[in-house]
Amino acid sequence: MIDVDIAVIGSGSGNSLVTDELADRRFAIIEGGDVFGGTCLNVGCIPTKMYVHVAEVATMVREGGRLGVDATLDRVRFTDVRDRVFAGRIDQIAAAGEVYRRDDESLELLRGHARFTGPRTLRVDLRDGGTEEVRAGQVVIATGSRASIPEEIAVAARREGITLHTSDTVMRLPEQPARMLVVGGGFIAAEMAHIFSAFGTRVTIAARGGALLRHLDDELVEVFTARAREQWDVRTSTTVTDLHRDEGGITATLSDGSHAEVDVVLVATGRAPSTSDLGLDVAGVDVHEDGRVVVDAHGRTTADGVWSLGDASSPFQLKHVANHEARVVAHNLAHPQDLQAFDHGSVPEAVFTHPQIATVGLTESQAVAAGVDVVTKVQKYGDTAYGWAMEDTTSVCKVVADRRTGRLVGGHLVGPEASTLVQPLIQMMAFDQPVSQMVRGQYWIHPALTEVVENALLGLDLNPVEDHIEYPHPD
Ligand SMILES: Cc1cc2nc3c(=O)[nH]c(=O)nc-3n(C[C@H](O)[C@H](O)[C@H](O)COP(=O)(O)OP(=O)(O)OC[C@H]3O[C@@H](n4cnc5c(N)ncnc54)[C@H](O)[C@@H]3O)c2cc1C
Ligand SMILES: NC(=O)c1ccc[n+]([C@@H]2O[C@H](COP(=O)([O-])OP(=O)(O)OC[C@H]3O[C@@H](n4cnc5c(N)ncnc54)[C@H](O)[C@@H]3O)[C@@H](O)[C@H]2O)c1
User: Fold this and answer.
1) Which of 52, 208, 213, 236, when mutated, tests ligand 2's pocket best, judged by the most ligand atoms within 8 Å of its CB?
2) For residues 251 and 261, is the Cβ–Cβ distance under 8 A?
3) pLDDT digit string, tens, across residues 283-329
4) Which atom, in ligand 2's list, is nearest to the CA of 147?
């Protein structure tokens, strides 16, 4: 039996709970996966963006001719990229992170699957064999999420002896596939389709919805889905009903009656919180219908002394949100009399595709539904100096504001550098800055691409400043 002050299950964002403020507490960090450090580092944000960057370079070469730069792409050396990313970088960081914790005598690192056996007591099935009991003053559930595979696809794959890939495995394929079926129409489907098609794989997407990335503002959905159709074989409003393996590869049958002949199937149909095998009922920890741990604004679960953060409990499966929640929970563990709350207002996100996407706040239809006196402006990149220099014809920045308050309620970009250009919009919303102040209270460099954002804001038909209704700033 190991007795600690704080037991953390999961070494992703949970690993950052060991802060200076908690230096006097004894921690146990329990990690059950093959590698240390969680999703973002090992199979998520970081390796995908290392692949995305390569995809961007390849795309730039391919598209240079449009601007008078004739270049040909010989090939992307998939296995070299893979080995540089994983063997050369990621795997070493993960291993070093594990050694750092193992060498730290002030904490216990346990490598194995944790499960509650009672209030704040855990049994860890160690990866090397055997079990360990852990009793803790406080427990933090930071177990993340895992790819969910629709049952009918799993059944067909099993019957045919087909290996289904998820984002966990597809970046480590032994060789680049010539043809790939991507099932799903969300973040991972879009980013992986971009990566593999830029690398030279022929990509077919089977998306259940009528468009890709449907949670976005309609304007972006339309632009992105149209651009996606130019790059990939996009089949919308369809699901995979069957898979067959033959000499030529894999034949997928779709619900619209069409077929796709491919070499690899990537399933990207969402991720479920990793909470089903934690014995949460024994611990008195309630979960939502979708499996997320129920937490209050401070990260407390329904069980005394048990906390949760990140994909295991958050409504957002995003690393910047998991990091924020970890900072809040770390503070709250150190200062139980002065609890901080999660800030889930205006959470931004970006999809690293071609074109790139970034968004914050409400879509136009959400703003209308929320009773906002909606005013919008759609600014084309091509109508600003740098966008014009790029000969851009499809990219836009759409801003959604409240006419009465003069405040932005949403910002949406699809186009080059979207994930960077969105930052002033995030800032405005976070600090409740009026559009008038943001747009005319500072210089905007000419002719930088940020003029897309400046012009979008300038184009909003807001009430005069003196008529703005002032609401107290939400602290
Ligand atoms: C392909 C992909 C790309 C992504 N790209 C981005 C991006 O660009 N930007 C962004 O913001 N977000 C991105 N995300 C989402 C982001 O990775 C997650 O939101 C984030 O990593 C969640 O962190 P976490 O700490 O909650 O969970 P994780 O990092 O998943 O950590 C949970 C850990 O708990 C361990 N664990 C689970 N159950 C147990 C148990 N019972 N016992 C012991 N250990 C256990 C797991 O092995 C895991 O290591 C991406 C995700 C994926 C899959
Ligand atoms: N750049 C980023 O920030 C980034 C990148 C990758 C992943 N992520 C995070 O990871 C999460 C998981 O990503 P994801 O793409 O797996 O999930 P997602 O929720 O973004 O998309 C899932 C998609 O699969 C579709 N789908 C579900 N069941 C289906 C079926 N049976 N057949 C066909 N389509 C089906 C859904 O309609 C949806 O389009 C994201 O929600 C996001 O929060 C973030």
Assistant:
1) 208
2) yes
3) 999 999 999 999 999 999 999 999 999 999 999 999 999 999 999 99
4) 16
Residue owning tokens 């008038």: 436
10 lines ligand 1 (CB under 6 A): yes
Cβ of 390 less than 6 Å from ligand 1: no
Query: Does residue 135 sit in helix, strand or coil?
Result: strand
**Cα angle: 268, vertex 273, 277; to 5 degrees:** 120
Atom of ligand 2 nearest to the CA of 188: 15
CA of 5 relative to ligand 2 center, distance in Å: 37
Active site residues: 446
Helix (H, G, I), strand (E, B) or coil at 294: coil
Q: What is the ipTM of this complex?
A: 0.99
Buried b (16+ CB within 10 A) or exposed e, 329-359: bbbbbbeeeeeeebeeebbbbbbbbbbbbbb
Look over the chain and give the mean of its residue pLDDT values, rounded to a whole number: 97
Per-residue pLDDT tens digits for 365-423: 999 999 999 999 999 999 999 999 999 999 999 999 999 999 999 999 999 999 999 99
